[in-house]
């Protein structure tokens, strides 16, 4: 048996070995204080350790010989523990006798000298220990099953979040793509230079969007690149009715973030704020941090919030999936699932007009 195998065995059974050592020490203390033996606690402790570990080894070997990797029946296992006790007692006791240079007594001598009570006691202790370690093993199995179930649930949640992300992209991309292609078709005939620029931005956007659909975590740099391509496409289509600006500090470019958290917010700002406004408006996207949170702001100068807007009010069931309230609710659900209750999305009025969307994400929280 190699040293690494022994080390692996000790690590795997560390808790059981600690319990067994404490158990053996308790038995030695009981024998010293209660039973009329002439030995010191130190001697009783050595014998208790030798006998206890010998019984345990006999139990482990017997279990392996009879059941191998199969799970034994509880009653059969406890009977085996009781049968192993006298065998382990004499093996451990004999080792102790040799260690102290004492003459090894026969079984009959042991029984005549009144030490038979120790043999009987070892049987009951083995029975008690068998019940204890059986329950410990059962508890460990339940904990392992619970961890497996947690891992399974986490995998399902990740799959659900990925499906939700893909569904969100499916909601965002088609109408934007069709509008862009329609505009591109018109521009080709009248302004080939703008058409070429629009096509380049469309390719840039689709490439970044495709990458986002395949990953669970991205960077702010990637998300801002995606937003800039998206906003540039809209700016070509809307002309002077849309001005935009992004501000991402150098130190935040590699900051990790879940994909597709920003674009639904920006799309809401365009679709429900800037686009319906006759003269259009502007979009400003920025990011900053404090000691605990990443703050991302999407500020528009569009139509502003409805008079009766309440972000705590559930979205109506009849509302179209792309409408603003539902889009914000989807972002909040993803924030809760990915970052926990400390993450938030809040909307407030911008002065003199428009909306400030504030995305707040804890820096200490990794994407689940």
UniProtKB/TrEMBL annotation:
Signal peptide: none annotated. Residues 139-173 form a coiled coil. Residues 308-327 are annotated as: Disordered. GO terms for molecular function: phosphorelay sensor kinase activity. Residues 315-327 have a biased composition (Polar residues). Residues 257-365 form the Histidine kinase/HSP90-like ATPase domain. SUPFAM superfamilies: ATPase domain of HSP90 chaperone/DNA topoisomerase II/histidine kinase, MFS general substrate transporter. GO terms for cellular component: membrane. Keywords: Coiled coil, Kinase, Membrane, Transferase, Transmembrane, Transmembrane helix. The keyword Membrane applies. It comes from the Bacteria. InterPro entries: Bact_2-comp_sensor_kinase (IPR050640), HATPase_C_sf (IPR036890), HATPase_dom (IPR003594), MFS_trans_sf (IPR036259), Sig_transdc_His_kin_internal (IPR010559). The chain crosses the membrane at residues 17-36, 42-65, 77-102, 114-134. This is Histidine kinase. It comes from Undibacterium baiyunense. The lineage of its organism: Bacteria, Pseudomonadati, Pseudomonadota, Betaproteobacteria, Burkholderiales.
């Amino acid at each position: 048996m190699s040293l690494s195998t022994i080390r692996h065995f000790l690590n795997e059974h560390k808790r059981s070995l600690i319990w067994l050592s404490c158990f053996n020490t308790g038995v030695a203390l009981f024998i010293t204080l209660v039973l009329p033996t002439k030995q010191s606690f130190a001697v009783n402790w050595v014998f208790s350790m030798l006998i206890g570990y010998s019984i345990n080894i006999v139990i482990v070997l017997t279990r392996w010989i009879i059941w191998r990797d199969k799970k034994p029946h509880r009653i059969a296992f406890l009977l085996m523990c009781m049968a192993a006790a006298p065998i382990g007692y004499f093996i451990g006791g004999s080792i102790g006798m040799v260690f102290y240079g004492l003459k090894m007594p026969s079984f009959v001598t042991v029984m005549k000298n009144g030490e038979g009570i120790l043999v009987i006691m070892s049987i009951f202790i083995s029975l008690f220990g068998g019940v204890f370690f059986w329950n410990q093993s059962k508890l460990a199995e339940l904990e392992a099953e619970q961890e497996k179930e947690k891992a399974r649930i986490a995998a399902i949640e990740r799959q659900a979040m990925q499906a939700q992300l893909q569904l969100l992209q499916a909601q965002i991309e088609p109408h934007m793509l069709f509008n862009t292609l329609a505009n591109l078709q018109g521009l080709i005939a009248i302004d080939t230079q703008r058409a070429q620029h629009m096509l380049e931005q469309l390719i840039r956007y689709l490439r970044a969007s495709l990458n986002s659909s395949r990953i669970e975590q991205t960077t702010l740099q990637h998300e801002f690149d995606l937003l800039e391509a998206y906003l540039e496409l809209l700016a070509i289509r809307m002309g002077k009715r849309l001005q935009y600006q992004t501000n991402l500090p150098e130190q935040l470019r590699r900051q990790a973030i879940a994909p597709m958290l920003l674009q639904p917010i920006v799309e809401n700002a365009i679709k429900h704020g800037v686009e319906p406004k006759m003269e259009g408006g502007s979009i400003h996207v920025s990011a900053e941090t404090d000691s605990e949170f990443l703050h991302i702001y999407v500020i528009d100068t569009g139509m502003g919030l409805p008079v009766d807007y309440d972000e705590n009010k559930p979205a109506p069931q009849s509302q179209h999936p792309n409408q603003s309230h539902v889009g914000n609710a989807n972002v909040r659900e993803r924030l809760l699932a990915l970052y926990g209750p400390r993450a938030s999305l809040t909307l407030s009025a911008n002065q003199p007009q428009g909306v400030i969307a504030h995305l707040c994400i804890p820096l200490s929280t990794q994407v689940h």
